[in-house]
Amino acid sequence: MSTASLTVQTGSGLSNAVRSEWTKLWSVRSSWLNLTTAVVLSALIGLQSGLGAAYNNTHLEPGQLAEQQPIGHFGISGMLIVQIVLAAFALLTVTSEYATDSIRSTLQWTPVRRNVVLAKAVVLAPILFAYGVATAAIASVAGGVTAGVWADWSLADLVTDLATVGCYGTVAGLFSAGVAWVVRSTAGTLTVAFLFLLVLPMMLGQTSVRALQWVAVLLPGGAGQSFMTGGTELLSQAASALVLVAWGAAALVLGATALNRRDA
């Protein structure tokens, strides 16, 4: 007598997990609200930056020379603020599941837990890159328009600046998502992201103590600013990229480890 075997597709594979995460991301209203907020904020920051550039060039101190500003720099300036909204977009893909307790269902359908972390990262990476490029482009164009004759519309420079912003946005978002797996709460994760991406690099970078300046540039936010601006005295653009990748990878590994070791 032969025994028939029945294989049931549970959807636990990585490809199924990726499709599931993609659907979940775009089926919630918070994702669309976040994107709308980022677009509006980017436009406002770009307008302000362009007006500031025009004012500075028409109100020069004695000995100063007027100069045009590449419009991509307005996009970089915008990302320094918009990155917090971008971080919220990424971390909510994790913390919202803990808030609604839907993480239990997610882990039932994808029992290999590292696949859950990886699937979210695979879905987020291209979206975060496009997020960064789009918001930087909006800020760049808005700034260029309001800066008037003081804006440099070089296409090659703009493409380079947008690409660097997109890369940084990708890593900043994945870093935030990785932290979210450890912290699990939206408020807590957003606090950590705010500190590491903006507050600490800004505060420590403005000190005159060399050691603190090094700490600032080695934090993800400091390395990101160095990367987007082509490098600094302390850290080259290539070295900044390596620091960023290390932060992003470490956060995701730590998040996967936390998910494996703790109950949902």
In spatial order, strands of the major sheet run: 1-2
State the major sheet. Answer: 2 strands, parallel
Helix content: over 70%
Overall geometry comes to globular
Structure classification: mainly alpha
The count of helical stretches stands at 10
Overall tally of structural domains: 1
Describe the 3D structure.
The protein has 264 residues and is an all-alpha fold. It has ten helices and two strands, in the order ααβαααβααααα. Strands 1-2 form a two-stranded parallel ribbon. Helix 6 crosses helix 7. It starts with 13 loop residues before the first helix and ends with a helix.
Write the layout of secondary structure elements.
Blueprint lengths: L13 H13 L2 H30 L10 E2 H30 L2 H7 L3 H35 L3 E2 L2 H29 L2 H20 L4 H9 L1 H9 L8 H25 L3
Helix pairs in contact: 1-5, 2-3, 2-5, 3-5, 3-6, 3-7, 5-6, 5-10, 6-7, 6-9, 6-10, 7-8, 7-9, 9-10
Key structural traits:
about 260 residues, mainly alpha
